[in-house]
Design brief:
The chain is α+β, with helices and mostly antiparallel strands. The chain contains ten helices and 19 strands. The model has no long low-confidence stretch (mean pLDDT about 95). The structure holds adenosine-5'-diphosphate (ADP) and magnesium ion (MG).
Amino acid sequence: MFIVSIGAGKNQIPLIKAIKELGYSIIGIDKNPLAEGFQYCDIKVIESIYNYHDIYLLLKEQLVFDDIAAVVTRSYGQAIKTVAYLSQQFKLPYIDFNTVDDLIDKSSFRTIAAIHNIPMPHGFIIHKKDLLKLNTLSFPCIIKPPKGHAKQSVMIIDSYHELCSYMKSVKQDTVLIEEYIEGDEIIVLGFVHNRTFYIYDISDKILNAKPYFVDRMHVLPSQYYTMYPELQKLGQMITDAFALQVTPLLMECIIRNNSIYLIEAACEFGGEYLADYAIPARLKSNVFKLFLQAIITGKVNVPPKSSVAAIVKYIMGRNGKLVSYSMPKNNHLIHAEMFAKPGDILYYPKNNHERLGVIITKGKTVEKAMQTADTLLEQMHIIIE
Ligand SMILES: Nc1ncnc2c1ncn2[C@@H]1O[C@H](COP(=O)(O)OP(=O)(O)O)[C@@H](O)[C@H]1O
Ligand SMILES: [Mg+2]
C-alpha cells in the first residue's frame, strides 16, 4: 500500500519518515527534482503540487485504485487543496474539495464561522474606495490581507489617518479589518478523525514588539492547558461547521478575560517547530505518526499529559550585517538553527520570515527550559555590525 505525500521538501520530511516507519511505501510529489524528501520516497513524481488533476492522472496511470491508503501533506494552502482533490478522487475521507477555498480565505472563513457561532473578533472586508464611508470604526484595530500567511502585512492600526495611509500603500484592493483583541495568544495543535476533533498540545505564544506580529517564543505546556475542554469544543465547532472528516487542524486563539477568540484555523500541522521538535520532546510522541495511525488503523491515540516543558525561542536580528556566531551545545537543547550566514544583511523582523534563528529546549519546568535557552543564546556570541 502507498501513501502519497503532497510535497517532498525539507518541511515534509517528518511526515515522510513517519509514513516509512509505519511500513508504507511513499509516493512523493514535488516540482523540484532535488527535493530533500525524495530520498525517502519509493516513487518520485516531479510535478507541481498545484496541478492536482495532472497528479491524479499520473497516479491513476501507475497504480490501481485501491493501492492508495492516504494522501497527506505537511504543507499549507494550495497543497491542502490538492490533498482534498486526490482524496475525493480516490474515495478517501479528508476535507471536501469545495470547502478548501473557504478554509483558506479569511473572509469566507469568517462568514461560515459566524453562522456556526464560532467566537471570533468582529471584522469585515473593506474596499479601498469605501474607506471614506468608515465612520464607526474604533481604534486600535487589526488589518490583514484576506489570504495572508506568516504575519505578512498583519498590522495594528491606531487611527483613521494611519488606516488611510496603510490602504494607499498596499497593492490589493481589499483588506480585512478586525477588532483588536488584547489578551494572551495560544496555539492549539490537533487533528480531526472521523469528524471528531482531538488535541495534541497547546502552547503559549509570545510576540515580538508591536506594531508587527512576529512570533518571538512558544512555550509548552500552555498556561491555558486548563481550558482543554473549551478548546476541544471550539475545534469540534470548526470541524462541524466545515464538515471536516480527516485532517490536522491548528487553531490560533486569543484568550481575554477567560473568553476564547479564534483568530485563525488551518487544516495543517503548522510550522514554528512545534510538531517537529517541541511537542515530540515534551510528550515523547510523534504527531505525524499519530495522525497517520488514526487514518490507517481507525484507532485514535492522543499523547499522554505531561508537565515536561519545551520552549521555541526565536533569535531576533536587527538592521545590520551578520558577522559571526557559533552553534550552542547542551543536553537540554533539542534543536538550534540559524537562518542567515555570516555576511548576510539583516533587518529588524517585520514578519516571521525575517527572524534570525531559533533555539528549542526542554526542561522540568518552563522556567528551566527558558533559562537554558537564554544561556545557549549567550553562548552563540552572535555579532551583528
Ligand atoms: N483581531 C486580532 N486581535 C489581536 N491580535 C490579532 C488579531 N488578528 C491577528 N492578530 C495577531 O496577528 C497574528 C497574525 O494574524 P493571522 O490572522 O493569524 O495571520 P497569518 O495568517 O499571517 O498568521 C496573530 O497570530 C495575532 O498575533
Ligand atoms: Mg496565523
